[in-house]
C-alpha cells in the first residue's frame, strides 16, 4: 500500500532548501550578475570556511551541546600553522600537527564536559577565552606571515588554489561534508551521537559510553575548526591574532538554519550545508545591494530568529 504524498510535511521537512532556492531566485532578479559562475564560485569559497566549522558544530549540537571555542581554535591553529610554514617545516607535517592541536583543544573541552559535569556553554566559553589568550600570547598580538618560498607557495594553494576550476577550499568542504554525512548516517558513532542527543540517560543505560562519545565529538569540532584555520591562513598568507572572532555565531546559525534542533537528537548534516549556503548567499546579496555591514548583522539575526521559530513550529506539529 503506497503512502499518499503530504505536501505540508514535505515543505516543513525541507524549509532550509526551499528558503535557499527562494533567496537565490529573489537575489538573481535584483542582480543579473548574481548567478554568474565567478560570483557563485566566490560564494562557495567564502562559505567553505563557515561550512567546515558548522559541520563540526553539528556533531556537538546533535548531542545537545554547544561549542563556543571554535573561533579561538581557528585562530590558534592558524597561528601555529603559519609559524611552522614560516620555519620551512614540511607542509604535511605542519598540516597534520595543526589538525592534532585543534582536535586536542576540542577534546580538552569535551573532557571537562564529560568527566567533570560542567555545562557545555560554560566549558567552551572558558575554552574560547583561554585559547584566545593563547593566540595573543603566541603571536604577541601581531600577524605571522607564512613567508615567500616553496613551502609557503604550496601552502597558499590550500586556500587560494584551484582543482579543475573549483577553489580548493570548496573541494575540501565537499570532502568534509561527505565524511561527516557518512559518519552520522552509517557508523556506530553517528548512531550514538543521535542517541545521546535524544536522551542521554537512555543511551547510557543502553550501553553507550556517553563520556567517550562526547570527547570524540568535541575533538571533531576542534579538528574541523583547525582545518578552517589552515584554509583561512593559507588564503591570507598570514595568521591574524583576531581571526575567527564571532565565527562560532555563524557556525551555530548555519546549524540552526539547517534544521538541527538545539535540544539535540534531531538534524541532518545536509541541512547544515544548506544553512551555511543561506548565510553565504545572504552576505553576498547584501554586499551586492551595497547594504552596510551593520544592517547585515541585523538581517542575519532576523533570518536566524525566523529559522528558530519555524523549527519550534515544526516540532510542535510533529508531536
UniProtKB/TrEMBL annotation:
GO terms for cellular component: plasma membrane. One of its GO terms (molecular function) is transmembrane transporter activity. Keywords: Cell inner membrane, Cell membrane, Membrane, Transmembrane, Transmembrane helix, Transport. The keyword Coiled coil does not apply. It comes from Tropicimonas sediminicola. The chain crosses the membrane at residues 15-35, 72-105, 112-139, 159-184, 215-236, 269-288. This is Ribose ABC transporter membrane protein. Signal peptide: none annotated. It is found in: Cell membrane. The keyword Isomerase does not apply. Pfam families: BPD_transp_2. InterPro entries: ABC_transp_permease. It is a multi-pass membrane protein.
Amino acid at each position: 500500500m503506497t503512502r499518499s504524498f503530504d505536501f505540508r510535511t514535505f515543505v516543513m521537512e525541507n524549509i532550509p532548501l526551499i528558503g535557499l532556492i527562494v533567496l537565490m531566485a529573489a537575489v538573481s532578479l535584483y542582480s543579473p550578475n548574481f548567478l554568474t559562475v565567478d560570483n557563485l564560485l566566490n560564494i562557495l569559497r567564502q562559505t567553505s570556511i563557515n561550512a567546515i566549522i558548522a559541520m563540526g558544530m553539528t556533531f556537538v549540537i546533535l548531542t545537545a551541546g554547544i561549542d563556543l571555542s571554535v573561533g579561538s581554535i581557528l585562530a590558534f591553529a592558524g597561528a601555529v600553522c603559519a609559524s611552522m610554514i614560516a620555519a620551512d617545516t614540511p607542509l604535511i607535517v605542519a598540516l597534520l600537527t595543526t589538525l592534532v592541536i585543534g582536535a586536542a583543544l576540542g577534546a580538552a573541552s569535551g573532557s571537562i564536559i564529560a568527566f567533570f559535569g560542567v555545562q557545555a556553554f560554560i566549558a567552551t566559553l572558558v575554552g574560547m577565552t583561554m585559547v584566545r589568550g593563547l593566540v595573543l600570547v603566541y603571536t604577541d598580538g601581531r600577524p605571522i606571515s607564512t613567508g615567500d618560498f616553496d613551502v609557503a607557495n604550496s601552502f597558499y594553494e590550500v586556500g587560494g588554489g584551484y582543482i579543475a576550476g573549483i577553489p580548493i577550499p570548496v573541494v575540501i568542504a565537499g570532502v568534509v561534508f561527505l565524511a561527516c554525512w557518512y559518519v552520522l548516517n552509517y557508523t556506530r558513532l553517528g548512531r550514538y551521537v543521535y542517541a545521546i542527543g535524544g536522551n542521554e540517560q537512555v543511551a547510557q543505560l543502553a550501553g553507550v559510553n556517553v563520556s567517550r562519545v562526547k570527547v570524540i565529538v568535541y575533538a571533531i569540532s576542534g579538528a574541523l575548526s583547525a582545518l578552517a584555520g589552515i584554509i583561512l591562513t593559507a588564503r591570507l598568507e598570514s595568521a591574524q591574532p583576531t581571526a575567527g572572532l564571532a565565527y562560532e555565531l555563524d557556525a551555530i546559525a548555519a546549524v540552526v538554519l539547517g534544521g538541527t534542533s538545539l535540544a539535540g537528537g534531531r538534524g541532518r548534516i545536509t541541512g547544515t550545508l544548506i544553512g551555511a549556503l543561506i548565510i553565504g548567499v545572504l552576505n553576498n546579496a547584501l554586499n551586492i545591494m551595497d547594504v552596510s555591514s551593520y544592517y547585515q548583522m541585523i538581517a542575519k539575526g532576523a533570518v536566524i530568529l525566523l529559522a528558530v521559530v519555524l523549527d519550534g513550529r515544526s516540532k510542535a506539529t510533529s508531536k
